[in-house]
Amino acid sequence: MLKQRIITAISLLIGLIGTTTQLSLFNFTLFISLVVVLASWEWGGFIGLKESSAKLTYSLTIAAMIIGLYFILDISTRDSSVDFVRASILLGLGLLFWILMVFVLAGYPENKSTWNNESKIACMGMLALVPSWVGLVVLKSLEEAGLLALALVILVAAVDIGAYFAGVNFGSRKLAPNLSPKKTWEGVWGGFALCAVISVAMIWAANSYFLDLTSVQMVVLFFLAPLTTFFSVIGDLLESMLKRNQNIKDSGRLLPGHGGILDRIDSLVATAPPFALLLVFMMSEAS
Question: Which of 31, 158, 164, 192 is found 20 to 30 A from 225 (Cα to Cα)?
Answer without folding.
Answer: 31
